[in-house]
Amino acid sequence: MIEHVRKRAEISQVFNAGVFVATCDEEIYDLITLNGGNCIMTSNFHHSGSSRASEAVDEIDCTHVVIIQGDEPLILPDDLKKFVNAVESSNDYFVWNGVSNILIKEDFKDTSIVKSVANKNGEIIFFHRGNPYISSSDFYKEFSKKVLGLICFEKNTLKKINFLDKTLIETSENIEQLHILMNSIKIKSVELGESYPSVNLIEDALKVQKYLSADEIQIEILNMYNKPSNFE
Q1: Integer Cα distance of 227 and 4 in angstroms
Q2: What is the pLDDT along the chain (232 residues), one digit of tens a residue?
């Protein structure tokens, strides 16, 4: 699953400082390096992806850090390009989060899926897991979006937030981004339209396997994995 994410990041060719996998797991490290990827071993005491990335970027010369979580094996290289372009065109922010449309009504009740709401300026004002709305789904689906495991930090901001105290709401809801909001740091929402399933539960992995074997776009991306020109 992680190797799918890494390959798609490399295919996008938008990460100037390179693509790195940060892990404390020797099995993952061996897999990535065996496939020719860059892997950074980190401490096993991290409580979040941003915390782990904060340690890993000490070894990387960059101004911004895009974190693509390992549970996004179907992420599109084109969406990574759109995301980076959005970051570059809104440089008055320090944190950005990719979001997508929610098309299935039941997903609003699915607590394994994190959702967000943004204001008219595209700044995320809240994250939630369940469905807090009393209005109809035809209404709230217009402003409540699925939060993707795709987030960018200005490097110094990434280092800074990991020294800020955790808040009760972020630990209770188990939503990492609430740590950022509750410490008064704005998060710019980057809308990417429709998206493929992420892997939050075991049954999600089965959905992913079906897409990889039957979806034309996913098959096309798989066929790009072995083309050397995509990894220069």
Answers
A1: 15
A2: 999 999 999 999 999 999 999 999 999 999 999 999 999 999 888 888 888 999 999 989 999 999 999 999 999 999 999 999 999 999 899 999 999 999 888 898 899 999 999 999 999 999 999 888 888 877 788 889 999 999 999 999 999 998 888 889 998 999 999 999 999 999 999 999 999 999 998 999 999 999 999 999 999 999 998 654 444 4
CA–CA separation, 123 vs 96, rounded Å? 9
CATH code of the domain containing 77: 3.90.550.10
Structure tokens of 155? 């490097």
The pair phi, psi for residue 104, each rounded to 5°, is -105, 120
Tally of residues, the chain:
232
214 in a structural domain: yes
For residue 22, being part of any structural domain is answered with no
Under 8 Å between Cβ of 67 and 49: yes
For residue 101, the enclosing domain spans 65-231
Positive/negative CA dihedral, 116, 158, 195, 212: negative
Does the residue 25 lie in any domain?
Answer: no
The angle subtended at Cα 71 by Cα 165 and Cα 139, nearest 5°, is 80
Using alpha carbons only, give the angle 111, 116, 120 rounded to the nearest 5 degrees: 160
SS3 content of the chain, % helix, strand, coil (to 5): 40, 20, 40
In a domain, 102, yes or no: yes
**Count of domains forming the chain:** 1
